[in-house]
Amino acid sequence: MSKSPEGGGPVHTLGWWPRRRSALLDVGLAGLAGLECAAGAYGMVGDRLHLGAPAAVVSAVLGALAGATLVVRRRWPAVPVLVGLVFVPGLFGMVLLVVSLYTLAATWEWPSRRRRVVALSAIALAETFGMALVYMLAPTQVPAEETPPTWVFVLLAALVSVGLTVPPVVTGLYVGARRRLVESLTDRALGLEAELDLLAEQASERARRARLEERTRIAREMHDVVAHRVSLMVVHAGALERIITKDPEKAQASAKLMGEVGRQALDELREILGVLRMAEPAAAAAESTGGLTEVTGLVEQSRAAGMAVSLTVSGERRPYRGDAEQTAYRVVQEGLTNAHKHAGGARVSVLLAFVPNGVRVAVVNDCPGGAEPVRLPSGGNGLVGMRERVVSLGGSFDAGPEPDGGFRVEAVLPSRLAVPSERLA
């Protein structure tokens, strides 16, 4: 008992038979061929050769055993053919010969074993032709003048031999070729089904990765927008708490600035949430907020919050792609946010340099002095996100401590991200 290749229920097998009905068919054919061979052998030995009843019975038994060889026709297809050729001279065993020739042609590989099929079929054809011709040309009681010409007997013998051998061989070849074709198509269909399953799994995995990347991108955008603005608001709130009684006018200015920063944070959050409803979120997000022209505003906001920050711009200014400009903007924003968090009171320098190989942005703070840094929560993912952004655009990113105890955040974006000059017209 084995399982079907399609994954269905079990298939019961008996020896070399794939199904029970195949075994019953072979047993039935063997019984029919055995009866014919037994009857033919008994008649030839008893009636024509007159060898007596015991010899006739032995011949009948041998004939029955010869017909029974059809039971093994699927396992050893040449055996019943060879046995059938033995009985052809006695002009019996036709069922055995026809079925065995069909099985031989249907079950043996073609064309790898065509020589054996052709050889055994040719022997059967020649033997049946010779026996039929001998039988027809045997002396009879018919007068010579009433006997047909010899060519008539030759033609009849040829027709008989062809009728007994060619149709079963051709039919067997056709059935065998058709069976092999069906098996080949079945195997190919199973292979294609497996390939489609693999492609479906790969598509599902790509979709999962795309969703994960989109969630990561959105989280990064939310971090970039919220961290810097909220940091400024916390710094202003701390300053406002200290000066509200000493300098009401300055406290009022700080409160006004806090409102402006909060509104900017809300506007940027609305833009990011609006991007989620657009067909091309990545492209829209790249152009939503932030750019090299807005770096000055970032510096002014930090300066208004009490940070000693300077901005240096060098080189010939040139426009870059939206995603590149936004990335440079976010690097400066992240650097200033880190300075607010960890380097309170330290001097901070912002560098924006348009160099031949691209654009370079850097935020460097000195070693923190006596002022205590603002205690703000940190997820630890800001610099990691910046590195991913810059590297994805083909740039380089570096962040780490300086020899004098300060800290540097620097990124270089390649010049291939610049907008061609002809598009500026």
Automatic annotation (TrEMBL):
The keyword Cytoplasm does not apply. InterPro entries: HATPase_C_sf (IPR036890), HATPase_dom (IPR003594), Sensor_HK_TwoCompSys (IPR050482), Sig_transdc_His_kin_sub3_dim/P (IPR011712). Residues 214-278 form the Signal transduction histidine kinase subgroup 3 dimerisation and phosphoacceptor domain. It comes from Kitasatospora arboriphila. GO terms for molecular function: kinase activity. Signal peptide: none annotated. Keywords: ATP-binding, Kinase, Membrane, Nucleotide-binding, Phosphoprotein, Transferase, Transmembrane, Transmembrane helix, Two-component regulatory system. It catalyses: ATP + protein L-histidine = ADP + protein N-phospho-L-histidine. It comes from the Bacteria. This is histidine kinase. The chain crosses the membrane at residues 23-44, 51-72, 78-105, 117-138, 150-175. Its EC number is 2.7.13.3. PANTHER family: NITRATE/NITRITE SENSOR PROTEIN NARX-RELATED, NITRATE_NITRITE SENSOR PROTEIN NARQ. It is an enzyme of class 2 (transferase). Residues 325-415 form the Histidine kinase/HSP90-like ATPase domain.
